[in-house]
Amino acid sequence: xxxxxxxxxxxxxxxxxxxxxxxxxxxxxxxxxxxxxxxxxxxxxxxxxxxxxxxxxxxxxxxxxxxxxxxxxxxxxxxxxxxxxxxxxxxxxxxxxxxxxxxxxx
Amino acid sequence: xxxxxxxxxxxxxxxxxxxxxxxxxxxxxxxxxxxxxxxxxxxxxxxxxxxxxxxxxxxxxxxxxxxxxxxxxxxxxxxxxxxxxxxxxxxxxxxxxxxxxxxxxxxxxxxxxxxxxxxx
Lengths: 106, 120
What we know:
The structure holds 2 protein chains of 2 kinds.
Chain A lengths: L3 E4 L2 E3 L6 E7 L7 E6 L6 E5 L3 E2 L7 E6 L2 E6 L9 E6 L6 E2 L3 E4 L1
Parallel strand pairs in A: 2-11
Antiparallel strand pairs in A: 1-3, 3-8, 4-5, 4-9, 5-6, 7-8, 9-10, 9-11
Chain B lengths: L2 E4 L3 E3 L5 E8 L8 E6 L6 E6 L6 E3 L7 E6 L4 E6 L8 E8 L7 E4 L3 E5 L2
Parallel strand pairs in B: 2-11
Antiparallel strand pairs in B: 1-3, 3-8, 4-5, 4-9, 5-6, 7-8, 9-10, 9-11
């Protein structure tokens, strides 16, 4: 199975901060990577697919980059709604696998 | 609008089985794969498997082979996920999610989640 490793596990930030979350794959997954946001008690929400494509309706302060084994999710200016947990997911091969999550808190 | 509505929370004893439903609406049921994702309490997301609603074929993560059965009822646009021989470690929230029709492998709509608690 492809292992996905996110860093950091927890990130403390303030409104207006620029935040970068990293996701590493144990083998190349080309650009087959998605990012999700999850708030407590809620289902995940798709933010980015194919490593850098923003899902419709997602604010432009979110952006994704990377290919192969190294990927990043950037929030250019953190807003109150952005305090949540973020997961990367590879869909290059079954079984699809997720990173362990990055919690962004105040 | 697209909706996936899951059945309510369940409490089961060890050794029992549980069947969780996921009712789809707002789109052509047979045109989109459905996935199941598990989230243990305080833990991350874990992909369990996929159902092709057209023919009912499934693919599961190796660790869930023999543990999970996924079926569908096309007349009601409902997918069912059954977990057998429950143990306490099966306690989790289970999500169904629709795979995007434009881009394979990503989940564009999710159910609200179903908490299954296994306790004696």
